Amino acid sequence: MAQKIVIVGGGTAGTTVANRLARTLAKEIEAGQVEVHLYGDQSVHLYQPGYLFVALNMGDLDDFIRPQKTLVHPRVHWHEQSIKELDLKHHRLITEHEQVPYDLLVIATGSVPNFHYVPGMAEVTENFYTPDGAVRLRDRLNRFTEGRILIVQDMPHKCPAAPLEITLMLDDYFRKRDLRKNVEIKYTYPIGRIHALQSVADWALPHFIEREIQYETYFNMERVDPERKVVITMDGAEHPFDLLISIPIHQGAEVIRRSGIGDELGFIPTDRTTLKMIDQEDVYVIGDATNLPISKAGSTAHYQAEVLVKNITDRIQGRPETTLYGGKVACFLESSLGEASFITFDYHHPPHPAQESEMLHWFKGMYNELYWLTARGLM
């Protein structure tokens, strides 16, 4: 009987792992010794970092969407189905229509923003973390000619650099429209600096000062008053806005919370180097679904996929699993509409932002085009 590898989640992490396994285990799959199954609940694949560019009118949403089935290798069994429960005790998934046994399970269910976590936020906020939100924010920005933009965020959330990026890009956006003098931009952060990574905060702060971007730290939201257009923080202060852009707290996928296998936010306890679920020898976790204290970003999933695929391949082929994930992450940092910086870091080496340049911005644009090769497991 074939060994059954089941991957849950059709985003970057799950699709990349499935496609890479289709190549590294090609011989075993063709011989009927291994099956790779990928489960996802959407017919389309969304390149989420593209939403930022949609919001700033630098790309169309269609540029960042592909039919999921066109990205999946022919050796992978693609199932467009919702998973109701992950039953780890009995090594099976439960869908609407069937119970699916597995030998090895890869959980790549991602994370989702919770706009209802802060009372009142969902009624009035704009965002660039959902496809509809990015389009709606683009339209709001096109009409926005004066007033106060307030950018707020809760932790954890995907792509920790994105709030800084949109702040710096909005400054350039309104300068190019000759409206910056009429628009007040205020960025907020919940701890005592403007980014969790000290070197990134140190990189961004001079830009804020030079461009007269307001900022406030230790900004922890209690609620939003949609009628009065104010954010009330836990210290009782009120912060008015004309346009609220929020990056809400993210949580693990509903199926994780429903299955009772995650922490209080629905993230899965994961070994930081082997990427196995704690106390589960046959379950691997990748990408945003883990509870690891590292960036929830596409590059994280990319580097984790390399480790996961190597270890699963070694396991199937009878070798010990010796490849360890070192915490590697890489990220472009857009500093304007035409320049970017770049960072890379891991568990043992902090990031050192590169000098921003047009070339790095161009590289980011190129990667937006090349991402589909990553999803196909070719990069």
UniProtKB/TrEMBL annotation:
<protein>
    <submittedName>
        <fullName>Oxidoreductase (Flavoprotein)</fullName>
    </submittedName>
</protein>
<dbReference type="InterPro" id="IPR023753">
    <property type="entry name" value="FAD/NAD-binding_dom"/>
</dbReference>
<dbReference type="GO" id="GO:0016491">
    <property type="term" value="F:oxidoreductase activity"/>
</dbReference>
<dbReference type="InterPro" id="IPR036188">
    <property type="entry name" value="FAD/NAD-bd_sf"/>
</dbReference>
<dbReference type="Pfam" id="PF07992">
    <property type="entry name" value="Pyr_redox_2"/>
</dbReference>
<dbReference type="InterPro" id="IPR052541">
    <property type="entry name" value="SQRD"/>
</dbReference>
<feature type="domain" description="FAD/NAD(P)-binding">
    <location>
        <begin position="4"/>
        <end position="152"/>
    </location>
</feature>
